[in-house]
Amino acid sequence: MKQMLYPCLMGLALSAMPALALGQAAPDAQQTDAVLTYEPVFFADYNPQSALDLVTRVPGFDLQGGGGGRGLDAALGNVLIDGRRPSSKAGVTTLLQRLPAATVLRVELIRSPVPGIDMAGQDQVVNVITDRSGGWTGAWNGEARLFESGRVIPRGDASMTRTSPNATLTLAVDLSGHANGRDELRRIFDLTRGAALESRIEDRFQERFWDLTPSVGYQRQFDAGHSLRVDARVWAWGFAANRTGFVEDAQSVLLGSAASRSETDAYGTEVSADYDHRLSDVWSLKLTALQRLTIEESNDRFVDFEPTGALDDVTRIAETEDEGETVLRLEARRASSPSRSRTFILEGAYNFLEGDFDLFEDDGTGEIEVDLPVSDTRVEEHRVNAGVSELWRLSPRWTLDATAAVEFSRIAQTGDAEKERTFTYFKPEATLTWTPRETDQIRFSLRRSVGQLSFGDFISSVDVVDDTESLGNPNLEPERTTAAQVEWTRRFWQEGALTVILRHEWVEGVLDSVPVGLSGDAPGNLDDGQRSWIEFEADLPTDRFGVDGGLLVLSGRLRDTNVPDPVTGEDRRFRGDEDWRFSLDFRQDLPGWGMAWGFDYSVQGDEDFYRRREFSRTSDARGDLDVFAEKQIWGGMTARLGVELNGGTNGRERYRWPVSRAIGVPTQLERREQESDGYVTFALRGVF
After folding, report:
1. Strand pairing of 125-130 and 79-81?
2. Cβ(139)–Cβ(155) under 8 Å?
């Protein structure tokens, strides 16, 4: 695949080179050196019904929901609404879905830092400007998904927005769900006997998930440029999974059967607010607060049967998790001139997770609890981040955005494990943006970031089906990454864009699985590693190829990772990082017929996973393919029919050693083939 992607990437770059002389802004886009503005007429042929439909059609822009870094702005996306970055962690996609397209005056693509715009470390952002002329507007979407199992799952969302010159109120409700199913075949081979087949296991998994989330958002503009925004949501969701299966020996003699049921219920709340206050023509303040709480309970029961059908063994897991987050952030911005501004940032955060993991076994003589270390614990983190950022437009073509920040944190664990540690991390970053001409832009960046820990890794867990366990590790530290990146974007053919990214990362304390004790495994930190990749995305209007109204989006990534293995001492790949991926998306709008159709396809390379006595590699054999067609019907509604096709069988090979991967050779091989169900979606959506 590497041999295929490199020529493909170079070919795309070379094919775009002649466009330099022809490159121009889209006819309905106003262009400056830093901002491209797209008016509603630019999107008219796409029949947009929400702000999300508009944003996803901005040429050369990749919508992101936020990274995995620590802090409030690191968790948010690359979309602003009326110049403000939403403080809710619901995700920018959800917020844009609630905003009817009719309320959007224009969409601005800000492709280099601009004084007064909160880029929050993003290379480029989209700013959605809304209409505040007044009145109620709304958008709705209802759909039904028919799965191969025969189950029909309803989904949908609806929102109502009332605007006035000084205020906006949005009420929304979202319902989502799925009934995914899959068939799984595992074959066990004895490598000490010439890879002779030992047994085969066939399982059928059937899942059911639902999520209901009502929400409210309110924004108010006061005199003298002051403004307030409040977002609140509550959610409840449930998940259930059934499994049935059997085990046979090499001669197809039944050795036993199994069944299991897993159930999880959860609910939570989140409230966020931010207030902007202009002190003078030079100074302004922004105060942001966020409070989130999630409560989750799960019960899993696994039953094994003898070949005769008699009960053999029962395993039960009961788990509870209470998780919360509180963030308070203050920004003081000084705009000394139209080309220069400085922002002082102070952020405090408190995070906690209290979890209880109980494991029970019953062999027919009565249920007994299995003692697991670090299975009942509470983890708390107090964190303070302070920094100053400088934005300087050096010239009409050059912009420098630099930040110097320091983070102080304390992580304390109580319960089965007692541990308290303090950390200090320096997090400088700088981005230099060069716009040599309207069609081209190059960004050079150097950034040090600190990853967000998963508090669930501090608590022990067991995977009964996969026969593995992970112990809670109170010694976990955040992963630290220093990244150097060069990104080039070229715009051509009115709606076309090509982006190429070269990136190298130096990663300290790579998060992975590490050996603990005499025979256990736990989430932990490895030594330092490196990660490099080349990535491209090309938006190609197909009018040039004789297909009117079409847009073809190609994207791909080649990645190389390297870290010392804690078991063997040899260099190997990062856990779970595929070495390549590729996707192809196509959409053709046919305004004369009032319809559109398209498809998207994605595929990726293998992923490796390591434990003390195991190595496994998963493969995505054929990828995923989705096809859709939509038609405008009466009353301004749009009907959509979509099919998610089964791309083939996903595979995994898992090798097991008797003692350690560092000693001898593997003695057992498990080959797994997994085939997931497809489904058909019928949807109606509209505005009012």
Report:
1. parallel
2. no
Neighbours of 253 (CB within 10 A): 10
Amino acid at 616: S
Query: Which of 461, 469, 149, 473 has the alpha carbon at shortest distance from 298?
Result: 461
| 243-269 pLDDT, tens digit each | 999 999 999 999 999 999 999 999 999
**CB contact set of 534 (below 8 Å; sequence gap of 6+):** 9, 500, 501, 502, 503, 557, 558
Distance (Å, whole) CA 446 – CA 429: 6
User: Residue 75: is it exposed, middle or buried by C-beta count within 10 angstroms (0-12/13-18/19+)?
Assistant: buried
How many domains would you assign to the chain? Answer: 1
Mark the ranges of the chain whose per-residue pLDDT is less than 50.
1-31, 67-69
Closest C-alpha to 78, from 92, 90, 97, 89? 92
Instruction: Work out whether the CA dihedral 67, 73, 78, 81 comes out positive or negative.
Output: positive
Q: What is the pTM of this model?
A: 0.84
Give per-residue pLDDT as tens, 164-212.
Answer: 888 888 899 999 999 999 999 999 999 999 999 999 999 999 999 999 9
The C-alpha atoms of residue 15 and residue 26 are separated, in whole angstroms, by 19
**Residue 111 domain-assigned (yes or no):** yes
Could you tell me the CATH number of the domain that includes residue 47?
A: 2.170.130.10
Strand, coil or helix: 68: coil
Question: Could you give the count of Cα atoms lying within 13 Å of 210 in the half-sphere of its Cβ?
Answer: 10
45 part of a folded domain: yes
- The answer to whether position 121 is within a domain reads yes
**Which phi-psi region, left, alpha or beta, contains residue 41 (left: φ > 0; alpha: ψ -120 to 50)?**
alpha
Nearest Cα to Cα of residue 154 among 212, 240, 216: 212
Distance separating alpha carbons of residues 423 and 608, to the nearest angstrom = 31
Range of the domain at 121: 32-131
- Residue 87 is predicted with a pLDDT of 64
Question: What one-letter code names the amino acid at 387?
Answer: G
